[in-house]
Amino acid sequence: MNKVCLKVNERLDDLLIKKLKIIQDETEFCFSIDAVLLSHFTTFKNKAKVVDLGTGTGIIPLLLSARGFNEVVGLELNPKTADMAQRSFALNNLSDNLKVLNIDLKEATTYLQANHYDIVTCNPPYWSKDQGKISDNKNIAMARHELTVTLEEIIKTARRLLKYHGRFSMIHLPERLTEIMTLLAKYKIEPKRLQLVQPFINKKPNLIMIEGIVGAK
What CA–CA distance (Å, rounded) separates 20 from 210? Predict the structure, then answer.
């Protein structure tokens, strides 16, 4: 593992798998169990080419690498978190396999080949602009609310990147399932797997994970 030079407010967290470490900033949006769940839900395929939309500090690419995915590109709009992701990849000697592009995901096919990728993953902002209280921290607000990208724009981008029979996997809120299913149908991504996540066995699900295949029946 390479040496790391942490910046102000940054910390180094142990991912407790294959000695992987990740750089996070205590004043920024830090990853949660949602990203961990999605990385394990995503269907494994040898030599798959993967794009992670809104990768943040690169948690999903790192966890996918631990499962054997060896070509993952993360897209991140926030330059600060994109920088942390790239330094985390270098820290773990994974810069040859994991990349991050500091771009708006809506412009993905300007930088990446369309209809080329096997898998697209996304742990998106869960709430629209009209839902809940928006954080005073701009970067945290962007991670939680659809201030810079909408659910439809995410699914549209996934469809443009995926090859025929490519897979899109996402984690989201159960109350938005109807909207998600409608948009997947609009962009010809057929839902194939759905998993509900309960915080406790006697509580109703608070998260869903869904995987769809482009052009499937």
Answer: 26
